[in-house]
Specification:
mainly alpha; two-stranded parallel sheet; about 55% helix; about 0% strand; two-stranded antiparallel sheet; about 375 residues; 14 helices
């Protein structure tokens, strides 16, 4: 089965991941160097992975997601039990799927059994295998891509705040995305009909990104990773209509699955609205501008807790230390707050809550002046 990340990020002696292929020892301003030194000098190794934490979070999310989904899919249509099961299933499926981010950031030799299990039991079943995420997510972290029109996860590339037409197109894309992913895997055998079609598919249709300008850079290992993911995902996609045609599942199973998929995509996109300020002008930026454009959310308001599972709400800290395991982000943040001087710009990365950033992303700069 697919092993997840096919290539490990290069990591310096401080545990800092470099997605551009070289150690980033001198980049950044003085306060970034102070933050890195504070993490380096800490009594705790914040880069140490806890296998138990990964497995517990995975198995709890998997069990809750599939149990709630089973109820949602099998009880009578429009029943109160289905109405109750739907939001529970959507939340836990979103949480389960979010672990693809943690699979991506694990090193090539870290937790191989966990990566294989997540791909087999979640990635394939949800049609979101990690080889379709790892490459473009690491490009998002790269200084070469971050904030540019080719950044695969920079929301400003697909949504212009305050533009109703852009918002309408964004909503349509959210609604279409599950269908596009389903067809990508269902029609995978057809991509071998012509070498040029296959090459286009590998470069332009093998990343789980909304940015159509993004083109995947391919290595030999990428090609094999994509193929290894396509085979089980094709079988999974084909099984959905096959069971309906054989009369083993009711026809309503297909729209029910679609609605559930849309719900998880909506949750993910709502989170992405506030990962960053999206203040870039499309040009490449230095590391400091990259980090300042990112957000930390440390307050426990309900929407932030809903949209940011696994402590990824410390998103600026995550971009500062991409290889730091998610379960160490909160204590590492507390250490930096206690260690760095009061005038450190790091303290200014904290935002009041998800809505304070998301409203600007959606409605434009004017929303920042309102007291909504």
């Amino acid at each position: 089965m697919v092993a997840g990340c096919k290539s490990s990020p290069q990591t310096s002696a401080t545990g800092l991941e470099s997605t551009d292929g070289h150690a980033d020892a001198t980049a950044g301003s003085a306060w970034i160097r102070e933050a890195r030194q504070a993490i380096r000098d800490a009594d705790v190794d914040y880069f140490r992975v806890s296998p138990a934490r990964y497995w517990i979070d995975f198995l709890v999310s998997l069990t809750a997601a599939y149990l709630a989904s089973a109820v949602y899919l099998t009880v009578p249509l429009w029943s109160w039990r289905q109405a109750v099961a739907f939001p529970i299933a959507a939340f836990w499926l979103y949480r389960l799927g979010s672990l693809i981010h943690e699979v991506c950031h694990l090193g090539g030799h870290e937790l191989p059994a966990f990566k294989a299990a997540w791909n087999a039991l979640a990635g394939v079943m949800l049609l979101t295998p990690s080889p379709f995420f790892t490459r473009h997510h690491r490009d998002h972290h790269s200084q070469r891509y971050y904030g540019t029109p080719e950044d695969p996860e920079y929301v400003a590339n697909v949504l212009e705040g305050g533009n109703p037409r852009s918002m309408a197109g964004y909503v349509v894309y959210v609604l279409a995305f599950p269908l596009l992913v389903f067809l990508r895997f269902l029609l995978a055998p057809l991509t071998f009909l012509h070498p040029q079609l296959r090459e286009w598919t590998l470069r332009k249709a093998s990343s789980l990104t909304f940015n159509r300008a993004y083109e995947r850079r391919l290595t030999a290992s990428d090609r094999w990773a994509i193929l290894a993911a396509e085979i089980p995902c094709f079988l999974r996609a084909a099984l959905i209509p096959t069971l309906v045609l054989l009369g083993l599942n009711h026809w309503s199973r297909i729209p029910l699955l679609y609605v559930l998929a849309v719900a998880t995509v909506v949750l993910n996109q709502l989170r992405q609205l506030a990962d960053h300020h999206f203040a870039g002008d499309g040009s490449r930026v230095e590391l400091e501008a990259h980090i300042v454009d990112s957000c930390n959310f440390t307050r426990n308001d309900p929407l932030t807790l809903l949209f940011f599972p696994f402590s990824i709400r410390y998103h600026a800290l995550h971009h500062l230390f991409p290889s730091m395991p998610y379960h160490n982000l909160k204590p590492a943040h507390a250490h930096l707050v206690a260690t760095l001087p009061p005038d450190s710009p790091y303290h200014g990365l904290d935002r009041p809550g998800w809505w304070s950033v998301a409203k600007v992303t959606m409605f434009g700069d004017w929303a920042a002046l309102r007291r909504a």
